[in-house]
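Researcher: Re-running this chain for the archive, since the previous output was lost when a drive failed. Same request as before.
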Amino acid sequence: MQKLEQYIAELKKQQTLSLEQFEQDLTVQLAVERAFQAATECCTDIGNHIISVYGLDRPEEQRDVFRILAKTGYLDDEYAQQMSEMVSFRNRIVHIYWDIDLQRLHRYLQEDVPLFERFRIFALQIIEAESQ
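Model: Regenerated structure tokens:
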């Protein structure tokens, strides 16, 4: 959970950059790519843990984690779809790293960081419920 919080904070730091500034700074681009990748992996890891603890269906792919959590009532369908799309973007960053659309990455930076924050809150609620 601490790592997820750290990646969210790093992404938020970069949100003030204009698209032009972002496109001109390779170091920032790489940092944002890595933070998106790692934050997404944190969410899928936490989701996999919840799936395992509660004996839910086993995901075939990482994007299935969110579908399973929605199917069992832990997440709403629309949010689960958005998180699945983050997994697809993470896969593109990792496997097609030479062809990252910087405008899209910047748009994700501006618009999609709250998806990670929402998952963090969801996970904290699960942890809190378990400890009571």
